[in-house]
Amino acid sequence: MTGPHACPDATVVVHPTRQALADAAAARLVVALVDALAVREVAHVSMTGGSMGSEIVRSLVALPARDAVDWGRVHVWWGDERYLPAGDPDRNDTQNDAAGLSTLCLDPANVHRVPGPDATGSAEEAAATYAHTVRSTGTGAFDVMVLGVGPDGHIASLFPHHPAAGTQGEIAVAVHDSPKPPPDRVSLTLECLERSREVWFLVSGADKADAVRRGVQGSPFAETPAAHVRGQERTLWLVDHDAAADLG
Ligand SMILES: O=C1O[C@H](COP(=O)(O)O)[C@@H](O)[C@H](O)[C@H]1O
């Protein structure tokens, strides 16, 4: 976890534009969920916040093929959440809802939100509650873990050189003093992110090109957490042309 680690087992798919990337990722998600539901009673997808989180949801709800998914059997999670009250516009789940997530025919009982300060006394308590939900739902593995990547190489709320990023033996962790606002957050740990059949990094924009290069070609965990997450069956870097600029 500490040394540079190239990513020979990951597949990089480059799309011409951010819109093409979001549309292709949404179509890929529909196929992945249909396939998962063909062999299991329920499917688990973990969504992301940030710029690409809303983009993929917007593309998903605009896609006629979304109706091929039995959404009532899909569990939705988030890889991280900003520790803010329910409905706060800066929360990842609020932004996904605003992008149209709430228009899918999901069972609200299967939409697993990280509690905020309106429901818990601290980010630690929220992390413990969320971890308990992961355990009690019997989530053996997420079918798809969708992750955005920050320009600094962070994934979920696991930031470079931040002590919370290296948490071991836990499912979720409280993050304080986040370098990106808001300062208090809850994140799945690296160990938990890797309990995923497929991990998809969704990255757009020239400001992320160096993070993509480090993530794909290798970089110490402390510098680039994104370089160290693998799916059990597949790891995909789904990027646009600008984000791929430094890959050569
Ligand atoms: O704060 C966050 O940032 C990352 C990346 O966001 P982006 O806007 O740079 O794409 C995101 O993946 C994470 O869920 C979010 O909490």
UniProtKB/TrEMBL annotation:
<dbReference type="InterPro" id="IPR039104">
    <property type="entry name" value="6PGL"/>
</dbReference>
<dbReference type="InterPro" id="IPR006148">
    <property type="entry name" value="Glc/Gal-6P_isomerase"/>
</dbReference>
<dbReference type="InterPro" id="IPR037171">
    <property type="entry name" value="NagB/RpiA_transferase-like"/>
</dbReference>
<dbReference type="GO" id="GO:0017057">
    <property type="term" value="F:6-phosphogluconolactonase activity"/>
</dbReference>
<keyword id="KW-0378">Hydrolase</keyword>
<dbReference type="GO" id="GO:0005975">
    <property type="term" value="P:carbohydrate metabolic process"/>
</dbReference>
<dbReference type="Pfam" id="PF01182">
    <property type="entry name" value="Glucosamine_iso"/>
</dbReference>
<dbReference type="InterPro" id="IPR005900">
    <property type="entry name" value="6-phosphogluconolactonase_DevB"/>
</dbReference>
<comment type="function">
    <text>Hydrolysis of 6-phosphogluconolactone to 6-phosphogluconate.</text>
</comment>
<dbReference type="GO" id="GO:0006098">
    <property type="term" value="P:pentose-phosphate shunt"/>
</dbReference>
<feature type="domain" description="Glucosamine/galactosamine-6-phosphate isomerase">
    <location>
        <begin position="17"/>
        <end position="237"/>
    </location>
</feature>
<protein>
    <recommendedName>
        <fullName>6-phosphogluconolactonase</fullName>
        <ecNumber>3.1.1.31</ecNumber>
    </recommendedName>
</protein>
<comment type="similarity">
    <text>Belongs to the glucosamine/galactosamine-6-phosphate isomerase family. 6-phosphogluconolactonase subfamily.</text>
</comment>
<comment type="pathway">
    <text>Carbohydrate degradation; pentose phosphate pathway; D-ribulose 5-phosphate from D-glucose 6-phosphate (oxidative stage): step 2/3.</text>
</comment>
